[in-house]
Amino acid sequence: MSQIRYLPLALAIAASGAQAYDLPVVNLGLTSFLDGGLPAGPGWYLQQYFQNYSADRLRDENGDRIGLPKTELDYQVAVTQVSYLSNLRLGNASLGLNAHLPIVTKMDVDDGLNNAALKAQDGVGDVLIGPFIQFDPIMGPDGPRFVHRIELQVNLPTGEYSDKRDINPGNNAVSFNPYWAATYWFNPKWSASVRAHYLYNFRNDDPGYAFGDVSDIQAGQALHANFATEYAVTPQLRLGINGYWLKQISDTKVDGHEVSGRREKVWAIGPGAMYSFSQDDHLVVNAYFEQDVENRPDGSRLQVRYIHHF
């Protein structure tokens, strides 16, 4: 079947914005084991992330595959995170600051139509910055039992963005994405962690071409979380299960009017491992396989993360 025969369908999909998913890139699976506390106390931390994502399906509001000859998306992103945990105290907690810079090093999209319907670009993403409060661990007779943190993350629209592209490294809108992270130790070898986010998006005053002649769009609010449990099989090596979950809880607004049928949903689960070279150096590897996807790409992630404390 020729590509020309598919082209009217592709253009109709593009005009509806069906593939131009609204929510910005958020932390889905970047963090996992022992997430409630920093591993070595106050000071500077450098964390380097590398993530590979591959999807061969783009889903609509019913979870069905969007009707293009191909719906393949593959990208690689490197995220550099710098953290500082100070000696400034607020009761039983310390104050700190996080900053992230993502760079999409590779972005491949194939719609089977020489990308007449799906257009993407790689490049530098949005800067994310967040002050946080790290609470002191609650200790038990054999070590820590519980530790948690609250961070007020803000996503700043500093990344590359084009209204002629469906997929961009930057979102061209401010987002507020605070979270609570916690780790609980069942015993000295076995723990479970969770990081729960709330996402509020402000307006994008330069909407993508798929929205047509409109002045602004505002992506809906969402909840998302990472979760993990792990067991120390040796003092250095931990093995476990990790996952993430996202659900959009309000409709996207176009020119101030809510548009139904665009809410995003996904969850994923997979295996993970963490190797500690010392108290100051740790390597984490996680895999995720997505399930029950709506209005999003449907694929898998491989995540590698290195943590160093200066």
From TrEMBL:
Signal sequence interval, chain numbering: 1-20
Identification of the protein by name: Signal peptide
Pfam families, alphabetized: Phenol_MetA_deg
Keyword terms: Signal
